[in-house]
Amino acid sequence: MNVIVVGPKGKMGRAITRIAEERSDMTLLAGVGPKGRAYIGQDIGEVAMLGKSLGKPIVDDLEAVIEDCDVIIDFSTKETALQVLALAKQYRTAVVCGTTGFSEEEMQQFKKAGEHIPVLYAANTSKLVNLMNQLLKLAANTIGDQTDIEIVEMHDRTKKDAPSGTSKEMGEIIAEELGKKLKNLAVYGREGRGEREEGTIGYHSMRLGDTPSSHTVYFGGVGERLEISHHATDFSCFASGACDAAVYLAKQQPGFYSMADVVSGNY
């Protein structure tokens, strides 16, 4: 299968390029970068700092290379991702998107595109994070209404959105198990005086250094506390999961998929 990597110079793009090049079940077709960047026209292996040339270019026009592509892997910006989605729909090309920060209305565009092409959206492509989500379902279903729930997430200093898309997804999973909507439960940070409001889900975002990703969900009871955590030490776990998602998606019919499908599916 042929894949195109959107944003190959970014942290995730470099990691995905490296993992994809190492795998025998996919072939890198090209990389796509923003118009006007100095590295347009250069070899994707050099730009992704693999220490070698791969004989594949970085272009600034996705349409120029999309026809031979099976799956596009996109970890760019939300503006670019929406443009990629529209072109993928036009050319009937599958898309794996790991970009975060979309509004509810923008997310509807991905779900709507799933009526025409295979689309997989994931705020986090780590398999272990998605296993953690299953544990959160169990915990929320069992003790969610008996405990105080807090979510603490940590990312590198360059991350643009807060809270993280992963932590929002975790909160949505918990809220759903409680039969409620996250928007009615979430409290973002705290200051001032007053007791904790019962039934809320607290959010706390940390941005420091080069931390790839760290998420901990606390279920605080009386005399005891349960913590469920995932800590990424580098971006390779996300890149590997994104490539697994691409292989999975290449075999699917049009639809809107998640990493839960990848983790549980046979491909």
Automatic annotation (TrEMBL):
<comment type="similarity">
    <text>Belongs to the DapB family.</text>
</comment>
<comment type="pathway">
    <text>Amino-acid biosynthesis; L-lysine biosynthesis via DAP pathway; (S)-tetrahydrodipicolinate from L-aspartate: step 4/4.</text>
</comment>
<dbReference type="GO" id="GO:0050661">
    <property type="term" value="F:NADP binding"/>
</dbReference>
<feature type="binding site">
    <location>
        <position position="37"/>
    </location>
    <ligand>
        <name>NADP(+)</name>
    </ligand>
</feature>
<keyword id="KW-0220">Diaminopimelate biosynthesis</keyword>
<feature type="active site" description="Proton donor">
    <location>
        <position position="159"/>
    </location>
</feature>
<dbReference type="InterPro" id="IPR022664">
    <property type="entry name" value="DapB_N_CS"/>
</dbReference>
<keyword id="KW-0560">Oxidoreductase</keyword>
<comment type="function">
    <text>Catalyzes the conversion of 4-hydroxy-tetrahydrodipicolinate (HTPA) to tetrahydrodipicolinate.</text>
</comment>
<dbReference type="Pfam" id="PF01113">
    <property type="entry name" value="DapB_N"/>
</dbReference>
<dbReference type="GO" id="GO:0009089">
    <property type="term" value="P:lysine biosynthetic process via diaminopimelate"/>
</dbReference>
<dbReference type="InterPro" id="IPR000846">
    <property type="entry name" value="DapB_N"/>
</dbReference>
<dbReference type="InterPro" id="IPR036291">
    <property type="entry name" value="NAD(P)-bd_dom_sf"/>
</dbReference>
<dbReference type="Pfam" id="PF05173">
    <property type="entry name" value="DapB_C"/>
</dbReference>
<dbReference type="InterPro" id="IPR022663">
    <property type="entry name" value="DapB_C"/>
</dbReference>
<dbReference type="GO" id="GO:0005829">
    <property type="term" value="C:cytosol"/>
</dbReference>
<feature type="binding site">
    <location>
        <begin position="122"/>
        <end position="125"/>
    </location>
    <ligand>
        <name>NAD(+)</name>
    </ligand>
</feature>
<comment type="subunit">
    <text>Homotetramer.</text>
</comment>
<feature type="domain" description="Dihydrodipicolinate reductase C-terminal">
    <location>
        <begin position="129"/>
        <end position="262"/>
    </location>
</feature>
<dbReference type="InterPro" id="IPR023940">
    <property type="entry name" value="DHDPR_bac"/>
</dbReference>
<protein>
    <recommendedName>
        <fullName>4-hydroxy-tetrahydrodipicolinate reductase</fullName>
        <ecNumber>1.17.1.8</ecNumber>
    </recommendedName>
</protein>
<feature type="active site" description="Proton donor/acceptor">
    <location>
        <position position="155"/>
    </location>
</feature>
<feature type="binding site">
    <location>
        <begin position="165"/>
        <end position="166"/>
    </location>
    <ligand>
        <name>(S)-2,3,4,5-tetrahydrodipicolinate</name>
    </ligand>
</feature>
<feature type="domain" description="Dihydrodipicolinate reductase N-terminal">
    <location>
        <begin position="1"/>
        <end position="124"/>
    </location>
</feature>
<keyword id="KW-0521">NADP</keyword>
<dbReference type="GO" id="GO:0051287">
    <property type="term" value="F:NAD binding"/>
</dbReference>
<dbReference type="GO" id="GO:0019877">
    <property type="term" value="P:diaminopimelate biosynthetic process"/>
</dbReference>
<keyword id="KW-0028">Amino-acid biosynthesis</keyword>
<keyword id="KW-0963">Cytoplasm</keyword>
<feature type="binding site">
    <location>
        <begin position="98"/>
        <end position="100"/>
    </location>
    <ligand>
        <name>NAD(+)</name>
    </ligand>
</feature>
<dbReference type="GO" id="GO:0016726">
    <property type="term" value="F:oxidoreductase activity, acting on CH or CH2 groups, NAD or NADP as acceptor"/>
</dbReference>
<keyword id="KW-0520">NAD</keyword>
<dbReference type="GO" id="GO:0008839">
    <property type="term" value="F:4-hydroxy-tetrahydrodipicolinate reductase"/>
</dbReference>
<feature type="binding site">
    <location>
        <begin position="7"/>
        <end position="12"/>
    </location>
    <ligand>
        <name>NAD(+)</name>
    </ligand>
</feature>
<keyword id="KW-0457">Lysine biosynthesis</keyword>
